[in-house]
Amino acid sequence: MTTREVEHEITVGAPAAEVYRLLAEVTNWPRIFPPTIHVDQLEADADGTRERIRIWATANGEAKNWTSRRTLDPGALRITFRQEITAPPVAAMGGTWIIEPLGETESRVRLLHDYRAVDDDAHDLLWIERAVDKNSTAELAALKENVELAHAAEEVTFSFSDSVHIAGAAKDVFDFINEADLWSERLPHVATVRLTEETPGLQTLEMDTRAKDGSVHTTKSYRVTFPHHKIAYKQVTLPALMTLHTGVWTFDEPAGGGTEASSQHTVTLNTANIAKILGPDATVADARAYVHTALSTNSRATLDHAKSYAEQKS
User: Fold this and answer.
1) Torsion angle of C-alpha atoms 185, 189, 194, 195, degrees rounded to 10
2) Collapsed DSSP state (helix, strand, coil) of residue 125
């Protein structure tokens, strides 16, 4: 079978060790890389040099998931990866991140890939080539931006969560959040909704939601479901005040009974739009408060309706 090899590289204005650290912390990838929806660490060696991870990401506009094994070498500033379970049309995929110091404040990042297509299909090889090129270019550009702006991003990136205790089963609460295709009937702030799930557990959710002022906003998210304890998502069509929005719904059953349901958000503000949306005198703190309030209002409303639904089932 034909094995193709390709290399992409970029120069980053940050120390090589800092770039390596960001790449090594794979659970943060949804915040850093545009194609990545969610990552779970499945296994890890005690010394931290080998791990098994599952990644959900988009490729050429399609949501895919695969399992990879990674070997981390902080001394050599190298991370090798090999997909363990691939998604068609990929038959095999692997590669290496190599970070090379270019002085104390600059580094070169090289991203190597090798891949094969199912049945050596020429059309599929071209599809994979385009996906690898598109994703590698996007990943390296995002890596450069996020590392170079890391110090500034601390002020404009923040996380928060809302929780509610429910006298009902986690399965019923999960079902309410999972069945987003019914939200326009169940949630007053949802005007219309379009949910597709071509791969079990991997959803595309498009929604029109009503704000307090009556305006309607359209959003699109990819969701990964883990019955009946978690639903992780990444919003890819964003309101003007955000450049990033990821979140996780969690459903835990504590020893005392019932379900602890939480909605966690991570947001990066779009500072370029603050004045346009909130006025010329608005600050980053104003934008944080505005976004926090808007997201929390919807989360709490959804959790309250999930609570009523699950408690009626009990």
Assistant:
1) -80
2) helix
CA distances from 171 to 145, 175, 177, 258, 275 (A): 40, 6, 10, 11, 43
Measured between its terminal Cα atoms, the distance across the chain in Å is 56
Q: What percent of the chain has pLDDT over 90?
A: 68
Both tokens of 299, joined, read 């989360």
Confidence of residue 27 (pLDDT cuts 50, 70, 90): confident
The pLDDT tens digits for 215-252 are 888 889 999 999 999 999 999 999 899 988 999 999 99
Q: What is the pTM of this model?
A: 0.82
Enter the tokens of residue 112: 């190597």
Q: CB-based contacts of 99: which residues, under 8 Å, 6+ apart?
A: 16, 19, 20, 23, 77, 78, 107, 108, 109, 110
Gap between the Cα atoms of 84 and 8, Å rounded? 22
Question: How is residue 124 annotated by DSSP?
Answer: H
Sheet with 259-269, strands from edge to edge, namely: 157-166, 259-269, 242-252, 230-237, 216-226, 202-210, 190-199
Residue/partner pairs of 119-125 with CB below 8 Å, 24 or more apart: 119/91, 120/1, 120/2, 121/89, 124/89, 125/2, 125/4
Angle between helix axes 16-24 and 122-148 (nearest 10 degrees) is 120
Q: Is 152 exposed, middle or buried (0-12, 13-18, 19+ CB in 10 A)?
A: exposed
Pairing of strands 259-269, 157-166: antiparallel
